[in-house]
Amino acid sequence: MTDKRLYSPKYVKEILNRYGFQFSKSLGQNFLIDGNIVRKISGAGDITKEDYVLEIGPGIGTLTEELALNAKKVVAVELDEALLPILDETLKDYDNIEIIHGDILKVDIPKLIEEKLGGGPIKVVANLPYYVTTPIIGKLIEEDLNIHSIIVMIQKEVADRIVAPPNNKQYGSLSVFVNFYTNPEIMVRVPKTVFMPQPKVDSAVIKLTLKEELPEVDKKVFFKVVKSAFGKRRKTILNSLSSNGLGLDKETIREVLESLEIPIESRAENLNIEDFIKISKTLPPLDIY
Prior knowledge:
With 289 residues, this protein is of the alpha/beta class. The protein has a seven-stranded mixed sheet with strand order 4-3-2-5-6-9-7, sandwiched between helices. The protein is elongated and about 70 Å long. Helix 2 crosses helix 3 and helix 9 crosses helix 12 (273-282). It is built from twelve helices and nine strands. It has helices at 9-18, 35-44, 62-70, 84-90, 109-116, 133-142, 156-163, 173-181, 219-231, 237-242, 250-259, 273-282, and strands at 31-32, 52-56, 73-78, 97-101, 122-127, 147-155, 182-190, 195-196, 203-210.
């Protein structure tokens, strides 16, 4: 399939009709039909012949094909059983692709990396349905997997929230969560017109490069503090931390903030990751275990 017919809307319609395939709204299926965008996604990941790639949600194989042309091996996990025979046809010319039927949230990824992807580190590429974006990203970055980077197509608004800096309306707990584990960067803005069927919103390709070393902090305490801080983001940091489940009185929170020289009238969006780390380390022990 080196003539790139998989990019063609005409070819997509032809093969889907031949197999009687119906798009599933519940699975959030939208297939890429723009070769330029497909090449940009692969390029964003700096995919080379040394790389093992895990693709999530290959669809009919449009991006899978491009990855296979550049990578050593691609393992693609597809949830929709109806797409398996289509993938067998569209990718039959490539001997470095393996398709696995499964739900990535239930797949044993460490075992997959060890047995089928050279033991890692691997690169992950995904065009994620909007409704599972956060759970899948969370699984990939939280579970200490042997992953170098994640290239993921997600809703534009979610991508903007992930890369938002402090003192920005879009900056929130998701920003802190992803930036704690990775260095995120928006690589490509993707208009809704390059998908079939066309979604209601634009997308963006974001690259998450996993950090080799994480900050030295109790993660459970840290994320409890972050969640509490953004739980009532219109309140001052003093009020949000003392009323959102930390189990500490306002005077104790005030003393912690003042000792760290964090203005008590600040709001969560004014604090960076280092501020949240300092608060987490300075608070009295929390009853969360």
